[in-house]
Design goal:
The chain is of the alpha+beta class. It is built from six helices and 13 strands.
């Protein structure tokens, strides 16, 4: 049974003399067969922190209570849960202490990962509330009546909710650009096969960048559905993207082009939608957008500097058409 057990276990008598041990105990102490009969405190340990072990062992005899704590190997590669348990003889008297070491490294790693996730979640919630507050304030300042405010604001919040659902579905991992684009364009794409045309090499965005870019696409899609190409049956939206050389290095160029819609008439006024797009591109993407208003339809050119913390690319990214 001792040879088969995988738990590092050492049996000590009342004088803390080693009576016997399992083979796994050699992972914790430098034990050999002739160490039976020697005090445990005389055996060199492979652990980094066993200070106070003698006192803890004595306390088990005095109180009869179990003592446990986590200890690290000297190389910090393994974490053990050390348990000191009294064992009793025929008259229920404590005859010795059972010392066990259970490898809990995976538990410790899981706890650290969970703490990281909670911290990240708290950070994202704070960011989300900040964005919601800014959107609410600016939308209220730019809308003529409560009904228009409710429609515009709720549309933006709903789009954010869909974006959060998208990144949550990816376990807060990278999200494909095509999926980000289709959050607000899927309904239009289902109307006709060529209504929405996407053309570009696979690109994946980090969660915070994906949510910011989703708000940008929502504003463009909403404008197209109210005033642009998506207001007419023949209207289409073409979106192309790819890498190119920019003024500060490589950048992802994304072009939103509306065609076959009503003629464009630009009055020179900049609405909150444009301001929101520019703000979302600037933080966190450090990107910028250029708006053109040819009579054939709105064209928006977005340039996002290459940044692995924002998006990832395949080995050979395509060039924009």
């Amino acid at each position: 049974m001792f040879d088969a057990t995988r738990v590092a276990t050492i049996f000590l008598d009342r004088d803390l003399i080693i009576r016997t041990f399992t083979p796994s105990a050699r992972e914790v102490f430098s034990l050999i067969s002739t160490d039976r009969g020697r005090p445990l405190t005389d055996i060199s340990s492979k652990l980094g922190d066993l200070a106070g072990l003698d006192r803890e062992l004595r306390s088990v005899f005095e109180s009869g209570e179990v003592v446990e704590r986590r200890v690290l190997r000297a190389d910090d590669a393994t974490t053990f849960l050390m348990r000191l348990l009294p064992y009793r003889g025929g008259r229920d008297a404590i005859e010795g202490v059972l010392v066990t070491f259970i490898d809990v490294s995976t538990v410790v790693q899981a706890e650290a990962h969970l703490r990281t996730l909670v911290e990240e979640l708290n950070h994202r919630v704070r960011n989300m509330l900040t964005v919601v507050g800014a959107v609410a304030t600016q939308t209220l300042a730019r809308t003529p009546n409560p009904a228009h405010f409710a429609e515009t604001f709720l549309g933006r919040i709903q789009s954010m909710a869909h974006a959060y659902g998208l990144v949550a579905g990816q376990a807060w991992g990278d999200v494909a650009l095509r999926d980000i684009l289709m959050v607000d364009l899927r309904e239009h794409a289902e109307e006709r096969a060529d209504r929405i045309e996407l053309d570009g090499h696979p690109v994946s965005f980090k969660p915070s960048a994906a949510i910011a870019l989703n708000l940008v696409i929502h504003e463009l899609a909403t404008n197209a559905a109210k005033h642009g190409a998506l207001t007419t049956p023949a209207g289409r939206v073409l979106i192309r993207w790819g890498m190119r050389s920019g003024k500060d290095g490589q950048e992802l160029a994304l072009v939103w082009r509306e065609i076959d819609g009503p003629p464009v008439e630009f009055n020179g006024r900049r609405g909150f939608g444009i301001e929101l797009i520019e703000r979302q591109l600037r933080t966190p993407l450090n990107a910028e957008a250029v708006f053109d208003y040819p009579s054939t339809g709105l064209v928006v050119r977005i340039a996002i500097p290459e940044n692995p913390r924002m998006f990832t690319l395949p080995a050979e990214p395509a060039r924009p058409g």
